[in-house]
Amino acid sequence: MARIVHQLMAIRTKDRLNRLVLLIPVLFLLSFYFFPMIKIAYRSLMQTDSLFALKGENMRIAWRSIRFSFLQAFLSTVITACLGVPAAYLFGRFIFPGRKIMRLISTLPFILPTVVVAAAFNALVGKNGWINLFLMRFFDLSQAPIQLFGTLGAILLAHVFYNTSIFIRVVGTAWERLDTNTEDAARVLSASPWQTFKKVTFPLLLPSILSAVLLVFLFDFTSFGVILLMGGAQFATIEVEIYIQTTQFLNLRLAGLLSLIQLFFSIITSLISKRLDNAPFVPIIPASIEKALRKPDTRRKKIFVFFINGILVILIAMPLGALILRSVLTSENIGSYGTLDFSLANYQRIFVNERDALFFVPPFTALRNSILFALAAMAISIIMAICVAVGSSWSSRAGKIMDVFVMLPLGTSAVTLGLGFLLAFSASRAMVAYFPVLIPVAHSLIALPIVVRIIQPALQAIPSNQHDAAITLGVPYARLWWKLDLPMIKKPLITAAIYAFAVSLGEFGATTFLSRPEIPTLPVAIFRYIGLPGQENYGKAMAMAVILLLACTAGFVAIENLQDIPVRE
Q1: For residue 545, which phi and psi values (nearest 5 degrees)?
Q2: CATH node for 57-343
Q3: From CA 398, how far away is CA 395, in angstroms rounded?
Q4: What are the DSSP calls for 477-504, one per residue?
C-alpha cells in the first residue's frame, strides 16, 4: 500500500514538474516570437497613418515585390522540378560507381549558407570567375564576356542549385522504397515504360512530389540572400524589399505591411505542406531496398545515368570546386597573361586587420563571433526542444498546441523575424547596444522546429514502463531524466545539436538586422568583403566562404552518419 501511495505521489510530482518545464518554451515563444510579430502587426495596421501606407509609390513598390516574388518562385520551382524528378529517379532506381559521393554532393547545397552559394557562383561565372578568366585569356579580351550576376538567370540558377536536393531527398527516397514488382507486372501486361510511369509509379509518388514542390516554392518565395547577392535591388522580392525599406529608407510602415503579407502567404503554404504530410500515404515498400536499385542494363539507361550525373556535377560540384580554387588564388592581375599564384595567403590575411579599419573587423573576429553565436543558439534550441518534448508528455492536448506554436517560426522568414526583433527591442539606445545578444535567440527560433522534430520522437520512443519501474523503486524524477532518458537519446541529441549549430553558423537574413558593424558574423563579413574593391578583399571573402563551406559540410556528414535517411522529409 505504501508503495502504491509513493508511486501516485511520484506521478503527481512528475506531472507538476512537466507543467513547469513546459512553461519555459511557452514564455520563450511569447517573448521572442509572438511579441515581435505583434509589434509588426501593430506598427503596420493599428497606427493611424499605417492604413494609408500602401498608396502611391509604396503601393507600386509593394505590388512589384509581390509579383516578382511569385514569378521567380514559380519559375524556380518549375525548373527545379524538371531536374529534380530525373535526379530523384537516378538515385531511387540505379546503382552506379560513386553513387554515395554523388548523393552527398547533390544534397549538400541545401544546408549551405546563401553567402557561400553566391561566393561559389561568383568564383565560377562572376566577373573574376574561372570561366570569364579563361575566356579573357584565350580570346585576349579586356572585359569579362559573361555578365550573369544581376540577372534573373543568376537567381534561377542559384535556386535550382539549392533546391534540387529536396527532390532527391524527398522524391528519390520514396522512389527507392517503391516495390519494383508492381512496375514489372505492368510491363508484363504490355505496358510501355511511359504508361507504367503514368499509371503506376506517378500516382504512388504524387504525394512526395507535391510535398517537394510546396517546400521548394516556399523556400524560393522567402528567398533573401540569393536575391540580394546574385540579383540585386532591381530584382527585389518581398524579403529584399523589407530589408531595403528598413535599412536604407527607414520606411518601417511599408516594411511591416510587407512582412505581414509575406507571413500570411508563408504560413498558408506551410499549412498546406503540413496537411499534405499528414495525409494517408502508404507506398508499397519492398522487403529490401537493394531490390529497387539496379545497375543500368541498357544503353539508354547508361546514357541517362551519365547525362544526369554530368548535369549535377556541372551545376553543383563545379561551383564548389571553383570556390575552393579561387580561395587559393592570389594573383593581382586577374585577366592578364601573368602567372597565377596559388598560395594560402588569403587564409593568412583573414587573421590580421591590416588596415586597422574601424567598422571592418578582421575576418577571424567574425569567425569567432559566428562560432560563439552558434554555440549559444545550439544550447538554447536544445534546451527549448527538450522542454517542449518533456513538458508536452503530461497532456496530449498541450502537446498538440505546442506543436503548432513551435512550427510557426518555420513559416516565418528570417527577414521578418529580424524586423520583428528590431521593432520589439529598439525602444532605447541601450537596448540597441545589446542587439548582438539577440542574434543567437533569433537563430535558435529558426532551428527550433527541426530540433524538436528530431528530439521529440526519440523521447516518445522510450518505453513508459521503464519510467514506472524506476519511480516504483524510488528514483527521483530529475535523476531519472539524467540517468535514463538522456543516455537513450544521445544520438538524436547530437544530431539536433549539429543541425542547430550549422543553421546558426550560416544564417544571414535575421543577422543583417541585429548585428553591429563591429560585431559581424561570418556570413555578414563575407557579404561585406565581396562588396569591397580589390582582389585582396575578394580573396578574403573566398577564403571565409570556404571555411564556412567546410564547417557546414562537416556537420552535414556527421548528421548523415548519425541518423538513417527517412522515407519522407
Answers
A1: -65, -40
A2: 1.10.3720.10
A3: 5
A4: HHHHIIIIIHHHTHHHHHHHHHHHHHHH
